[in-house]
Amino acid sequence: MAENFLEKFYKNLEESSSFGGLNAMRRAVGNNVKTKVIKKWLESKDSYTLHKSARRNFKRNRVIVGGIDEQFQADLLDMQYLNKFNSGYKYLLACIDVFSKFAWPIPLKDKTGQSILTGFKKMFKEQKPQLLQTDKGTEFKNRLVQNYLKKMNVHFFTTNNETKASVVERFHRTPMSKMTRYFTEYNTRKYIDVIAKLIFSYNHTRHSSIKMEPSSVNIDNQAEVWHNLYGDNSKQKSEKPSFKVDDTVRISKWTYSNVHYATH
Fold it and tell me: Rounded mean pLDDT of 144-168?
């Protein structure tokens, strides 16, 4: 039956479609099940309908990077309300490659400098960026963390909340949505034993901006990914300017602050 077939793709945490939406399920099952059947089945699931988020698109300045490992964005997710279900883990240190959208989550029991340092060391064993951007949280400015970043030749900088790590916000939306659906489906609040599988699913799910899975991005297809992200420069240059000479404009002020660069 179609229901049993769909159930496998929806509940298998290692599938890119796991606890996903209509598009993810459609890509996973292909032509085996009609779209209207998938939609009706999803709408019968509390774990889907109760956590179906409204998409709100806010225009932001794009972060333009040239390739893999050029710039990462990091954020600390507060998971304290779930710590008693997860062996005392209170935070998730989330880091995303701005170019490939590949993500790493590291569960932490506290946000001391030593814990943040341990988290970054685990991440950098796999991949290390040239630039690391965070918000203005003091946990990232800790002496232990800063000394390590300098040692690893990683340039660190922060920006104000208005422009804070917009790419890592994707982590808040997609994998966290999978997590809440998982909670509802299995009537649990324990994520510590499945977080790796949830992120595996995210990294192997087609990302709309790069038009492929983050896990598929590599040195050989960087040019294709760049084009998918930013388009044809020649077309951008031919666009009509928004303003003319002598137009009166209103300037939105923001501060690019607390820039920390490693010394060589």
Answer: 83
